Every structure is written in structure tokens, then in C-alpha cells.
Amino acid sequence: MTSGRSLELYFVDGKPDGMLTAEVFNWTGHVLRIPRTRLADGLRRPQANQTGVYLLLGQDGDGPLAYIGEAEDMARRIGQHAREKDWWDVAVLVTTTGDGLHKAHVKYLESRLVAAAREAAAMRMENGNQPTGASLNEAAVANMESFLDTLYMVLPAIRVDLFQSGRRAALKDHGSTSLPTTKSVFHLLVPRHGVDAVGELADGELVVKAGSQVRSVWVGNPKHAANYRELHESLVEKGIIQKTDGTAVMTEDYAFSSPSAAAAVVSGRSSNGRTAWKLPDGRTYADWETEQIAKDTP
Questions:
Q1: What's the domain range around 212?
Q2: Of the residues 140, 157, 174, which one is the last residue of a structural domain?
Q3: pLDDT tens-digit map of 148-181
């Protein structure tokens, strides 16, 4: 079982959308998020003059966009970006207490972060070629990988989802194409539309299995559940939903944060996932959830 961690957020302006810092107990890292409207004040903070990696987040005419870079003086480099790039509205600066990173460290981190962002494909990247990184000894690589593990926990907590992906390694094979009987495995069927999907609970997510048959296009009201429609279209664009002769199939396991999100993408329209997903015996996700709660209730 993974041990819990304690994250300390300090809202510099006293506002959730303002400047903030993020630190984790027993982690040397320091994260500073600066809205562009507070850029001058943010770049005066001591961490901004340190060696580190940074993210620029915003959007252009084609949608969300991100850039990842490194610098020995982040304030100077981001000041240049402010003059040359007008699409971004948030800068996230990553360094350490005591200015413990050096040039080779941040070149390594930049390369790994760009690769991770491209793998997640959650947002378009303005970075051109893949950064070459830096040659570090075995101990330094281990330290940087440990640093990244914690950073990947911190960033989503401050609403930076650049490295978040629903893609998952294949879960344990049930050895048959027939409906599994495991209690945590659910099925969603809409025969008239060719929908035949299997979803399995894993680590608090509903993972729709590769091979599940889903709707090839979004057919629901475009004004409703716009975020689910955009997710469906994004999965089609990335090839995770692959269209074939009017039908579509999931090409890999993909995790959703809720049963309704999974049901909407699978069905191509808004759907109550708590009733749409069912166990082999006909019980709904809602029935199963009620039973699980009752087991732990005196």
C-alpha cells in the first residue's frame, strides 16, 4: 500500500487562483505557480532567480498549449518569454530549497518532463525537438527520478494536468473474451448501437478495457457534457478510440475518474454511469457501491 504524503500549499495572495507555493514534507523541491497578471511580483521571489525547470501554460487559437524549459536564472528566461510569447497565462517554476539543482540536473529534468508530457498527450506542446538531456551518474539519476515522482504528485494538486493520462498498462488478463465474473468488473451494453464495453475498478478509477466496442462519434446534445464530448473527440484523435466501418473499439486500457465519465465516452452521450455499468448478475454500479458501503457501516 502506498504511504500518504503531506502537501503544504501557501496561497501568497490569499486567493486560490493567485500566486502559490507548494512543498512536500521531506522533499527538497519547491514549486511556485505565478499567474501572468502577477508575473513581475512572482519573478522577484528568490526561487525565481535559481536554477530550475519551468512550465508555461495557456492556449492559442487552436486550444490549450504548453512549453517546458530550463534555465540557470529562471526569472531572466521567463522575462524573455513574456516579451516573445503572448499565448501563456501561467508560469510554474520548479526548483529546490537552497538552490540545490545545477545545469545538468535541470537539463535531465527538462528532457524527462517533455517526454512525459508528450506521452500523456494531455496538451499540445510548443517545444520543438526532444531535449537531449544530460549525462548524470547512477546516483544522480536515481535522485532526479525520485524528485520527479514527487513532482508528478504535486502538479495535479495545483491544477497542472499536463502529465496526467488515462492510459494504463493492461490489467490482468481474465483469459477469456466472455464477461468476467470478478465483482469489480462491470459491463455496459447498448446492443442497438453496437456498444459492448468492459470496465474494471483499479486504484479508484474505472478502467475501460482494450477491445471494448464504443460509439464512434459523439451523438449527444453538443451543449451538454461538453467536457465528455471533448474527451471522446480527443481519444478518437489520439487513436485510443479507433473507428472501423461505422463502429469503434478501444485500442488500449483507459482510466476514467468516474463511472459517468466512462459511460459517456463509451456511449457517445451523457449517461448515468452508476446505473449504466452492471455486474454479470444485473446489479448496477450503484447497487454494488451501496453494498460496499454497508459492509463498512456498523
A1: 185-295
A2: 157
A3: 999 999 999 998 988 877 766 654 443 333 333 3
Q: Quick one: pLDDT at residue 173?
A: 43
Query: What is the mean pLDDT of the segment spanning 228-246?
Result: 86
Would you say 88 and 81 are in contact if contact means Cβ atoms under 8 Å apart? yes
Q: Cα dihedral sign for 57, 149, 166, 251?
A: positive
pLDDT tens string 244-286: 877 899 999 998 888 999 999 999 999 999 999 999 999 999 9
Mark whether 249 and 118 lie in a shared domain: no
Has residue 175 been placed in a domain? no
**Is the sign of the CA dihedral 210, 213, 219, 223 positive or negative?**
negative
